[in-house]
Amino acid sequence: MPEGDTVWNTARVLHRALAGARLTGSDFRVPQLATTDLTGWTVRESASRGKHLLLRLTTPDDARWTLHSHLRMDGAWRAYAPGERWSGRPAHLIRVVLRTPGAVAVGYHLHELALVPTGEEDGLVGHLGPDLLGPDWDPTEAVQRLAAHPEQSIGEALLDQRNLAGVGNLYKCEVLFLRGVSPWTPVGAVPDLPATVALAQRLLAANRGRWTQSTTGSLHRGQTSYVYGRRAQPCRRCGTAIRKEELGERVTYWCPVCQPEQPDTPPPG
């Protein structure tokens, strides 16, 4: 699943391609927007909020609207030069095409695609917690939101976008490994919760502006993570085989030695 830094990068790609330009055509391939025509509208900016993309536009009569999309597991936006071959995904996955004199933006397999007045954006993203990569990032509020449910496992709590927006499965696993915390530890038993939140923000911020996500400092293939995607491989610290289990609706990776379970914490499985 695209995480907060990937969505941030995608928003910047769209901003560079479209911002300030007037749309010369649009093609929506979803039922709810099939007859919508944005020709003549101007793209003001492209922004991200957690894992949500917000393309803000202005109509010829100066009304302000937002095209909202969510990438979920498999969505993507690509920007092409006019006349360039669209090579991002199969054509049947295209959900929207936006054309300007200088670029063509194509959205593949997008979810929750909606066009709303910009003043009503809060109805789509207002439930989200502080955005780890947003200008209004508030670590104190993020910690407070996590701490409000002390019985919830920290692994599930970090993925709950209502607590803090932008953490996905990769960063959840990596943050907890680096902090030496079992994913099944209740939030209330996590030592130094503010340090866990601060680390999550630093890791996402370090990967802004590049598509290869790394938490180890290496960009070489097979060396970019400590535990994520490394089931049965040796822990980079202690050599113990990395484990993989279900946690809620997601899988989680962890080292049973470097991330010991807290007393009274139910074992995984």
Please specify the SSE layout and strand pairing.
Layout: H1 4-18, E1 25-28, E2 42-49, E3 52-58, E4 64-70, E5 76-80, E6 94-99, E7 104-108, E8 111-117, H2 122-125, H3 139-147, H4 154-159, H5 169-179, H6 193-206, E9 243-247, E10 250-254
Antiparallel strand pairs: 1-6, 2-3, 3-4, 4-8, 5-7, 6-7, 9-10
Helix pairs in contact: 3-6, 5-6
Give an overview of the whole structure.
- The longest helix is centred in the first third of the chain and has 15 residues, at 4-18.
- The strands form three sheets. This protein has a four-stranded antiparallel beta sheet with strand order 1-6-7-5, covered by helices on one side. The chain has a four-stranded antiparallel beta sheet with strand order 2-3-4-8. A two-stranded antiparallel sheet has the order 9-10.
- Helix 3 (139-147) packs across helix 6 (193-206) and helix 5 crosses helix 6 (193-206).
- Helix content is 22%, strand content 22%.
- It has helices at residues 4-18, 122-125, 139-147, 154-159, 169-179, 193-206, and strands at 25-28, 42-49, 52-58, 64-70, 76-80, 94-99, 104-108, 111-117, 243-247, 250-254.
